[in-house]
């Protein structure tokens, strides 16, 4: 029987979905890892021995040797993808990446929009063009993964239309922005495959992005992401592939974090320990990583909310960064019953322990 494991963040992102996915990949070396939301803005950090990698355009099983699949709900940026592919090669990671034909493509014009638009900066952005890409796809000016292998003349007409959509009128400027983008497209052997490709695997690991509290339907607007960050997309794909054996891995740090603007409960500066490997540091678009005490009411909200999308399923809880604060995580404050609870210590530790 085919099995699916779905990794979901319970907060505002940065919970430890990458190391949880890596843990599952280490237990299931014949699996495929599927990204079902978000895109190149992910910073899912995995450390294996002395090798560290920040996964964005590849799923977090690639360092373990597993192939990656990006669904139609994801975005891709050819330049970012190419750069990460070259980095993964030096680390002997698996660079096999299959992409759904309807995955959305981020262009240089989308990145420009994310980094210069005042409203984007106010609402919060990673500066990788994901939000602008999703917003543009509400207009007629769309660009999908399948277009990357279309005749070049057709691709260029679509790119010119996107440049026009953003108000670019200088042909020289447009060509300069497109040159590295087109070179990246030509440097990649694109594997564009629909969900039929996944049927050859008996074990599927679904790697979520961001967290439930940033979901476009359930987060506090306007500081949300343009994605469904619950298990909604993953469960729909499981139904399509007729997978009934589903296991959930809900991930939270032992404290709360939020990278970027927006509402956050229990916010305060935490005296954290053993966080020298923290990847989520200051950047000019998201600013500082904000912290706060764990909010059990919000965790219960997120858990019950996701239960509306997945049923039945085995439920596991993963608590990361257990060694970074003095206070013990109080599992008894959660209303949901779990089949197992796992703990992880330093932010990118492979040392997962079943603690209940």
Automatic annotation (TrEMBL):
Listed A to Z, the keywords are: Cytoplasm, GTP-binding, Ligase, Magnesium, Metal-binding, Nucleotide-binding, Purine biosynthesis
Q: Which SUPFAM superfamilies match?
A: P-loop containing nucleoside triphosphate hydrolases (SSF52540)
Per the UniProt record, which EC number(s) apply here? Answer: 6.3.4.4
Give one GO molecular function term: GTP binding
> Top EC class per UniProt?
ligase
In terms of InterPro entries, this protein maps to: Adenylosuccin_syn_GTP-bd, Adenylosuccinate_synth_dom1, Adenylosuccinate_synth_dom2, Adenylosuccinate_synth_dom3, Adenylosuccinate_synthetase, P-loop_NTPase
Task: Specify which residues bind GTP according to the UniProt entry for this protein.
Answer: 13-19, 321-323
Per the entry, the cofactor note is: Binds 1 Mg(2+) ion per subunit.
GO CC terms of this entry: cytoplasm
Residues the record lists as binding Mg(2+) = 14
Q: What is its main location?
A: cytoplasm
List, separated by semicolons, the cofactors it needs: Mg(2+)
Task performed by this protein:
Plays an important role in the de novo pathway of purine nucleotide biosynthesis. Catalyzes the first committed step in the biosynthesis of AMP from IMP.
Name used for this protein in its record:
Adenylosuccinate synthetase
Source organism lineage?
A: Bacteria, Pseudomonadati, Bacteroidota, Flavobacteriia, Flavobacteriales
Gene for this protein?
Answer: purA
């Amino acid at each position: 029987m085919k099995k699916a494991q779905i990794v979901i963040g319970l907060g505002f992102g940065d919970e430890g979905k990458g190391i949880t996915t890596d843990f599952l990949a280490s237990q299931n070396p014949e699996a495929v890892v599927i990204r079902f939301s978000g895109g190149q803005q992910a910073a899912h950090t995995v450390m294996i021995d002395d090798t560290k990698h920040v996964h964005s355009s590849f799923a977090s099983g690639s360092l373990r040797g597993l192939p990656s699949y990006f669904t139609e709900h994801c975005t891709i940026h050819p330049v970012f993808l190419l750069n990460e592919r070259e980095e993964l090669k030096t680390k002997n990671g698996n660079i096999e990446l299959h992409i759904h034909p309807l995955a959305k493509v981020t262009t240089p014009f989308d990145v420009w929009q994310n980094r210069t638009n005042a409203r984007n900066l106010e609402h919060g952005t990673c500066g990788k063009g994901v939000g602008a890409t999703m917003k543009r796809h509400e207009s007629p000016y769309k660009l999908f993964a399948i277009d990357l292998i279309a005749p070049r003349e057709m691709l260029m007409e679509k790119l010119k239309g996107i440049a026009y959509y953003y108000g670019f009128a200088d042909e020289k400027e447009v060509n300069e922005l497109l040159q590295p983008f087109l070179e990246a497209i030509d440097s990649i052997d694109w594997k564009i495959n629909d969900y039929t490709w996944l049927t050859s695997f008996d074990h599927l690991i679904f790697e979520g992005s961001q967290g439930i509290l940033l979901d476009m339907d359930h987060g506090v607007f306007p500081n949300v992401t343009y994605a469904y960050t619950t298990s909604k997309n993953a469960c729909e794909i499981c139904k399509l592939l007729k997978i009934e054996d589903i296991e959930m891995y809900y991930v939270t740090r032992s404290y709360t974090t939020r990278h970027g603007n927006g509402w956050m409960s229990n916010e305060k500066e935490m005296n954290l320990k053993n966080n020298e490997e923290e990847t989520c540091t200051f950047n000019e678009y998201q600013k500082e990583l904000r912290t706060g005490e764990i909010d059990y009411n919000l965790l219960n909200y997120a858990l019950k909310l996701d239960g509306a999308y997945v049923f039945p399923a085995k439920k596991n809880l993963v608590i990361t960064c257990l060694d970074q604060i003095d206070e013990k995580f109080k599992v008894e404050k959660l209303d949901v019953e779990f089949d197992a609870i796992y703990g992880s210590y330093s932010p990118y530790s492979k040392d997962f322990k079943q603690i209940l």
